[in-house]
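Sharing a chain and its predicted structure for anyone who wants a worked example. Both blocks are below, sequence first, tokens second.
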Amino acid sequence: MRKHSKRKSISLALSVVVASSMFVACSKVNTGAPSETGAAKTTATPSSAAGQYPITTQETLTSWEQIDTNLASFVPNLAEAPFGKRLESETGVKVKYTHPADGQSKDQFNLLIASNNLPDVIEYNWGGGGAAAYPGGPEKAITDKVILPLNDLIDKNAPNLKKLLQQDKELDKMIKTDNGTYYAFPMIRPDNGLVFRGPMIRKDWLDELNLQVPTTIDEWYTVLKAFKEKKGATAPFSALYSNELNIQDAFIGAFKTANRFYIDDQGKVKYGPTDPQFKDALALLHKWYAEGLLDKDFALNTDSKSLDTKLMSDASGATVGLLSGGMGRWMDTGKKKNPKFQLVAAPYPTLNKGECAFIGQRDFKYNPVASKAVSGDSKHAELAVKWMDYAYSPKGSMLFNFGIEGESYALDNGVPKFSEKITKDPKYNLQQMVSQYTKPNGPFLGDSRKSFNTFKEQDEAIKIWEQTDAVKHVMPLFLTPTAEESKELAKLNTAITSYKEEMFVKFVMGKEPIDKFDDYVKRIKEMGIDKVTQIYQGALDRYNKR
């Protein structure tokens, strides 16, 4: 079958991406894995040795990747940003970028893969299993010649990444398939960058009402009731809704379950929404909804603007949100209107005082969501790999994390600090300014010194949100079921996730009585959840044996 027709045959299957939040362990650079690289198609090999920049080449690379929404307000293309221009001058490689329209990346990715004209590199979710953008996962993408295996290419052309993988066995284990194939260049988070989302609450309201920051479900109930009755909040607790209530299992986790797949205390994969105790979590959320404590319109908060409006208008006094794009941004805006406005982190709540939260938000060192793969069509595979490897070099890491020395940052006793040009612009906030000079997400080595925090409350938040047992219970996104397993996951998970979320909303809103929970669980079992769990368990077991 010709490659083009094969891609067309899978384009329908590409219409669904199911993200299931997923854990860790350890190995080292495997040069004995499959060595097909597509190098026979490579032309105009750059003359510079691997790891030496700028590269001497006349070739232009093509890259398909999302543009940061903050950057899009300044320039339409990454190549025009100060970051893009500096990256080109430092690497010696000219790159033509194509950016999918905001909110349409999934559809445009599908069309791209089905086309007969792939760019040299594609930055998207190349992870395994139900999380992968490509049905069948990375192994199927390699089999279909949509992307190239990278073992030989990394070994010969990416000394910076290769060194990191040799030094960090855990990372090395994460970024390859069960058969030892490297498939993408990873975004590597520093250890202090794994927790960045959690519950937050209006501290100025708590002080006014003589209440403490809540830690248990009962304390949250008392606080939210006071916000409604004494502060006039019409939606005391609200949150974003993106295919599900985006609360990172806050409140739900108090019942020792999760609104997703998770790993139990025995190391077994479980699907939280069918747990008996999930019924108790739904009953709690329904009670809060019925009493007007949970935003009546929670399912309509599909973009940040609706949540922004509720928090800034005092309709809401609590949410679950991001550290910088949430807490920092809201504090900045809120204080301009009301100097007393203050958001602080609240711990992930538990049923009993003093318990450690069962689960919460915690990422992994490698998150495949923003990883770069080399396409099977690339005629410049070696050049592409050398170009991407720059991001893992000491100099490249500084550019990706902090931007241009003397413009976006300066060294203070050897420590990079964002300049006043970035931190004190009268029109744009820190994240907007930084987006012009750095790459917020993508395949590069994150720096633990990088921080977007502008308030002490943000520094304190991380310490509070990381006090959970999430490290034991969150399932990794980078498990790699076999190609056949991945196709089955995509098929089964699509229907299961859709039905689960439909019923979740109905249970919370009271459109479906909670005593129908057993019928709902039976239906999900009929839809094949046990098979899905079995596949994930096998993938987890294989991962742990790598």
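Comments welcome. The domain at 197-361+470-544 is CATH 3.40.190.10 (D-Maltodextrin-Binding Protein; domain 2).
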